[in-house]
Amino acid sequence: MKLSIIGSGYVGTTIAACFADLGHDVVNVDIDEDVVEALNDGRSPIHEPGLDELIEEHAGDRLRATTDYDAVLDTDVTFLALTTPSDDDGHIDLSIMEAATKSLGSTLAEKDSDHLVVTKSTVVPTTTEEVITPILEEHSGKTAGEDFDVGMNPEFLREGSAVSDFLDPDKVVLGSNTSRGAATMRAVFDPLLERAPDAALVETGIREAEMIKYANNAFLAAKISLANDLANICKEYGVDSKEVLDAIGLDSRIGSAFLGAGVGWGGSCFPKDVAAIVAAARDVGYDPAMLEATMEVNDRQPVRMLDILRDHVDPDGARVAVLGLAFKPGTDDVRNSRAIPLVDALVDAGADVVGYDPVATANFREKFPDIDYADSAAAALDGADAALVVTDWDEFAALDDEFDAMSEAVVVDGRRIVTRRDGIVYESLV
Ligand SMILES: NC(=O)C1=CN([C@@H]2O[C@H](COP(=O)(O)OP(=O)(O)OC[C@H]3O[C@@H](n4cnc5c(N)ncnc54)[C@H](O)[C@@H]3O)[C@@H](O)[C@H]2O)C=CC1
Ligand SMILES: O=C(O)[C@H]1O[C@H](OP(=O)(O)OP(=O)(O)OC[C@H]2O[C@@H](n3ccc(=O)[nH]c3=O)[C@H](O)[C@@H]2O)[C@H](O)[C@@H](O)[C@@H]1O
């Protein structure tokens, strides 16, 4: 089939390359000329394992990119893969989505044949029907359900494993309110379901599909926050939280995934998505107590980490090494990284901060240009009075003699990855 994808960021680029690999003809439409040029040159505009290879293989053949929305006219289906950030009070900010939808609607005015528009972005329930569809109708002069269909297909891929997550998913969720739209969406996903026969197919309504995405992310974030709450209790009792969480994870009703206690969850999605569904719930008069607690526990973890540091070292004037600036290992993405509130608080307390990350230093420097940065964990530790381990990069688990170069070897481990050893004052957060 012929597919167009509006927005070529983490999601748009990944799904475009994967759909091309599955045999579809794909065109990406993005306003960023650098992104378009990279794709047409056969290069990935984002860093994701396996993506370069797919783009190199299909660019110029089944995969191309353009800044021109008219490319949509030669396709059967359009996915909207635009950013949906939070505004200051946590509500979803649809301005980018709305601008792109207007451009798409104006373009569809010129189209003679059926078309399906699928929301791929994470949007709160009713957005596709009550925001996107009216914009498409107004700008195209056409009627949804008659001249074109709309659908919703949430995405569950993770940064760092985006290609394999997309091509080998646990489930594919297709939301539709018309049988023609549902049939077209199934045809788009048939090659994927053939390649990944174990994937479950969930066919549902549009607002159910929208809510499944938030429920998925909110559940995972809540699971981590519950693990953190339990681990904090363990810490107060001198109980080994890892042994406890590993043991409960063996219960198949609980499962071991996303029970990793520590300094909490960050990234471009959990924080904004939990905040957005909490704000949306309040808008309709519901007080989402569990999800509010989920955010509160997450906000408290960095504060607890600094309290533990203060038990050993006064941050004022101390040199503090922050190991790990990315929001999780395997990425250079620092959006909502737990290192951000930690570094903010350390700087406020008068600490002399030195940060180190294997790949995320450049991105972190944009936010914190005035702290020091080291080229290695060893260099960050050299002469430091304390170290905070913030991201669970494998290389931090291997640190050993490097701690000997510290001025005072106080290590607060926010991810339970450093092995307790002689010669350091070791405190784990959980
Ligand atoms: N990043 C992730 O791992 C995941 C993200 N999501 C959701 O997918 C959606 C997209 O997220 P990302 O791919 O991370 O966003 P992103 O910020 O990486 O990419 C968005 C792209 O849209 C382009 N764009 C902006 N305005 C445009 C316009 N008017 N017309 C055409 N292109 C335009 C930008 O230049 C950019 O390349 C969000 O709703 C997000 O919550 C869902 C699952 C995973
Ligand atoms: O909606 C999205 O954008 C995506 O959000 C997350 O993916 P991602 O943010 O890439 O990363 P995760 O691996 O989920 O990690 C999120 C955060 O949770 C933290 N985490 C994860 C697992 C754990 O056990 N403990 C823990 O603290 C990580 O350190 C990280 O800060 C979801 O896992 C994806 O399914 C979803 O598609």
TrEMBL record:
Sorted UniProt keywords: NAD, Oxidoreductase
One annotated GO biological process: UDP-glucuronate biosynthetic process
Catalytic activity reported: UDP-alpha-D-glucose + 2 NAD(+) + H2O = UDP-alpha-D-glucuronate + 2 NADH + 3 H(+)
Active site positions: C269
Alphabetized GO MF terms: NAD binding; UDP-glucose 6-dehydrogenase activity
EC number: 1.1.1.22
Residue ranges of coiled coil: none
Keyword NAD in annotation: yes
Binding site for NAD(+): D30, T84, T122, E159, K272, R335
Pathway the protein takes part in: Nucleotide-sugar biosynthesis; UDP-alpha-D-glucuronate biosynthesis; UDP-alpha-D-glucuronate from UDP-alpha-D-glucose: step 1/1
Pfam families registered for this protein in UniProt: UDPG_MGDP_dh, UDPG_MGDP_dh_C, UDPG_MGDP_dh_N
SMART domains: UDPG_MGDP_dh_C (SM00984)
InterPro entries per UniProt: 6-PGluconate_DH-like_C_sf (IPR008927), NAD(P)-bd_dom_sf (IPR036291), UDP-Glc/GDP-Man (IPR017476), UDP-Glc/GDP-Man_DH_C (IPR014027), UDP-Glc/GDP-Man_DH_C_sf (IPR036220), UDP-Glc/GDP-Man_DH_dimer (IPR014026), UDP-Glc/GDP-Man_DH_N (IPR001732), UDPGDh_AglM (IPR054886)
Listed PROSITE patterns: PROKAR_LIPOPROTEIN
Source taxon at top rank: Archaea
Location of the UDP-glucose/GDP-mannose dehydrogenase C-terminal domain: 321-420
Similarity field: Belongs to the UDP-glucose/GDP-mannose dehydrogenase family.
Protein name: UDP-glucose 6-dehydrogenase
Organism annotation: Halogeometricum limi
